[in-house]
Amino acid sequence: MNIQLHYTEKGTGTPLILLHGNGEDSSYFVHQIEYFSASYRVIAVDTRGHGASPRGDAPFSIPQFAEDLKSFMDRLNIEKAHILGFSDGGNIALTFALKYPERVDKLILNGANLNPKGVKASVQIPVVIGYYISKILGGKKKAELLGLMVNEPNFTPEDLKKLQIPTFVIAGKKDMIKDSHTRLIADSIKGAQLAIIEGDHFIANKNAAEFNSSVGNFLDN
Description:
Blueprint: E1 7-10, E2 15-19, H1 30-36, E3 41-45, H2 62-75, E4 81-86, H3 88-99, E5 104-110, H4 121-137, H5 140-151, H6 157-160, E6 167-172, H7 179-188, E7 193-197, H8 203-206, H9 208-220
Parallel strand pairs: 2-3, 2-4, 4-5, 5-6, 6-7
Antiparallel strand pairs: 1-3
Helix pairs in contact: 2-3, 4-5
């Protein structure tokens, strides 16, 4: 059953949908909403079970979140949009673009990964431990969130080769996603552009000026 996702909207023009990461909400993109609303209809969405969006009873998974995005766009009568996804939001954007390429104008992947092995061990090992502890102790919501990082996503470079959408891959120099992994994503998508900028995983929030400028150049050209 479809749920109604909560969202923040600002600006007019071509829709630019922003998808946040695991355990966050649309407020993560405060600097992007402000900046890009000068040129675009910016729509920052709270994923199912995040922020002010209801959990519903459907599976808590990246493919389900991609279906939620399709229902959301249908509800707002958005035929096609630029989609910017961060972290798990990038994985949702990628899943959506592979299944519904006709609905995506340009794709921006920030700190996305093909599979859990793309995350540095220093980050992933505590996540895996936390996941199993939460399952044992019955922390359902925490286990669901961590489970997304432990079990998903599951893309291959061959999957990405199918994409014909103009794509921009961007990450931080000290990202929790391995640099080699980010480069593999960019190399696997035909014609994809790549930018590695100063900062960690959270460059959109902590290095907004450079992030916005880089993404803006991609969208404008």
